[in-house]
């Protein structure tokens, strides 16, 4: 005890900070940093889960193998589609619902709860339930659409490569947009009401008020959630795996699924690691861009 | 200013649009429940109906008793609760450091490390994590899942807590210090009682995240004894035929706990979630 007393205030502060951060840092070091280092290391070595005779330095061989994969280009394109259209759709639906909910009327809380519920359920449940509703033989959606003569024949939404990607994107938007709604809503509620009122007195219509007053105030929250969702969507594995497993005929295979295919089906850890390393590099670049943008944005606000 | 007619029109548009969005959000759950209560003949039909002619609990009985979902529910609860408590302890400690000692280099670096690790997907680390768990001989155990779930929620939970601690005035702590409290006493007696709402939302986030996770449970666990709910649902999707009735009944079982917890605690949950996401 005596020894502690002798520490200066700064030293004591430092010690407290270290002790408080230690558990978190241990977890992150052992279960994120170390595996990540292993992935980057393995990308340059021959590593195989079953065939242990494959060892040694590989140089760029793993990268070449992955780049030469006939489905690589398709997977990159799919990842881009999947990410861009999901985030775009989520943003639009989230914004519209937030604007609707940001008014005073009876039953607001009930609508807010209903709209938030999809975000709560496990991805597997969301995926499987839509899979069931979209079923070409027994599904309610095909039945309703044919009955209303919108389509003449049932569509195999998830089994037809023409529709599969659009369908998984739709279901992803359905599950993810509530997070945007709630974020925008809480940001809108912190905008002073007199700002909008003043604009209204000056004769600005509903749309003008939204674009000139509300939207600029949402810049910072938009940047954060759009960035986070670009990352979360691009790296998402569960959704597509549950609904299509990347099929039909690779039509919905994104990079995370390709990583999975290499590691858990072909057991080629080296190639899977090379793919992961490439993906990680792209994400770091995005992150740096985002970090700069965010710093400059908060400087503007200050 | 809007005149009266415009105001009525805008109200109608608001209600109609919200009913439309709510219906799209809620209908799949309604359909899930209806399908779970239907007998096989009414499920495998080309003319599905919103009405059930012969409602049955057959699907639930099969899922809970024959397939052994009771065990999976127990596993899911156990894993989620332990992961939730563990991540809360870690997040409170780290969040406090992030909020109070932000000027220190070590703290700034940790903050950046957490932001970065938020972007690293589980699937990217799947193989090394699998091998680590294998080496530690904790594959096929609760421990592997608890460790994985805790790790991946630490960043966001920490940000949620630290953004709350930012709002607690420093003067409160200094007063406690003058009164002779040490750091641990200050945190337990002064700060934590104040942070109850954020603790609830952080814990809830960690719990829901663990409850809903699929991939690690799917890869790390292959024995019934430790299997959790989400991978178990995938079991209904056979190679050739899918037991839709059972699948929907299992889904209902998986959705009920999170929905109820959310309905009771939504006020806390939403506020805390937002503060963390905007900061992280």
Biggest beta-sheet profile of chain B: none
What are the low-pLDDT stretches of chain A, counting only 5+ consecutive residues below 50?
none
The level 1 CATH classification of the domain at 88-220 in chain A is Mainly Alpha
Number of strands of chain B: 0
CATH superfamily of the domain at 88-220 in chain A: MetI-like
| Beta strand count of chain A | 0
Q: How far do the termini of chain A sit from each other?
A: 44 Å
State the largest interface.
A-B, 94 and 92 residues
Order of secondary-structure elements of chain B: HHHHHHHHHHHHH
Number of helices, counting only DSSP H or I runs of 4 residues or more of chain A: 14
What is the averaged pLDDT score of chain B? Answer: 85
Radius of gyration of chain B: 23 Å
Q: Globular, elongated, flat, extended or rod-shaped: what is the shape of chain B?
A: globular
The third-level CATH topology of chain B is MetI-like fold
Strand portion of chain B, in percent?
Answer: under 5%
What can you see in these coordinates?
The complex is a heterodimer of chains A (302) and B (280). Chain A has 302 residues and is mainly alpha-helical. Chain A is built from 14 helices and no strands. Chain A has helices at residues 2-5, 9-42, 61-68, 72-101, 108-120, 123-133, 140-147, 164-189, 193-201, 206-217, 219-234, 238-243, 255-265, 269-301. In chain A, helix 4 packs parallel to helix 8. Chain B is globular, with a radius of gyration of 23 Å. The two termini of chain B are 39 Å apart. The relative contact order of chain B is 0.14. Chain B has a single domain (59-279), classed as MetI-like fold (Orthogonal Bundle), CATH 1.10.3720.10. In chain B, helix 3 (58-66) crosses helix 13 and helix 8 crosses helix 9 (183-194). Chain B is mostly helical and 280 residues long. Chains A and B meet through helix 2, helix 4, helix 5, helix 6 and helix 8 of A and helix 1, helix 4, helix 5, helix 6 and helix 7 of B.
